[in-house]
Input
Amino acid sequence: MALTINTNLSSLIVQQNLEAATDSLTRSIERMTTGYRINNAKDDAAGYSIAMDWRVQLSSLDVAAQNNSTGIDLLTTAEENYALIVSHLQRIRDLTEQAANGTYGSASLSAINAEIVARLEEIDRVAANAEYNGIALMDGTTLADVSLQVGIYENANSRIVLSAELFGAANTQGLFTADIQDVADACTTATTAPSQLTAIDKAISKISARVTDIGAYQNRLESASTAIDVQIENLTSSLSTIRDTDVAQESSNYIQAQILQQAAATLLATANQTPSIALNLV
Output
């Protein structure tokens, strides 16, 4: 290589290598401080695109998990309220069976009637107030199915639809097709009390059928919850593989770039002295 004054080729070569080493060092510092191997599209265009798609999916899966949890909470609320109503119906049946015995006087039957009325009024109160986030659970006004979005797509496989039959009227009128006083009177009249036992059993069976369906839906939602958790775990693992920094490897790259930078800086000082050598020949 010729000695020249105007063009210092050695210095230009060292400067290029110094810049490359500095870029590599900066990249290693960025990757180790952020924890990500891919911080920008230029780091890995294909990987960046895949990582972005997976991050969107993970966010959507988190929402799906929340939707699934609220669906389970809704069903649990309905189940607990139905259990409360069944407990009142069971007590009403016990009282009706007592009244059917024929050994109770009018005062006792009047007391039984009063308790049955109170129990039926409580059933109506529970049915009227049972709701979840504005959705009526037991007063019969929820006529449409409740669709739960437990997946991240628009197809039917991403939804679990709760039948509106789960939320049918569970008040006195809905269970007996009669008002409170008529039901109570039938339960405490010797001639009608025995047949009223069958009506109470039908009411209990109606609620039991709903609770059975609720249990089936709860199993589906719990299965969906498990599936979502598996998806999140696998997708997170895949995202980590493609995006996260391998700290051991990057620390080695960092040390290598640091050494190259220091060497280039030292050699640049030497290369910059080359034109002065040419002057010594004059």
Summary: DSSP finds eight helices and four strands in the chain.
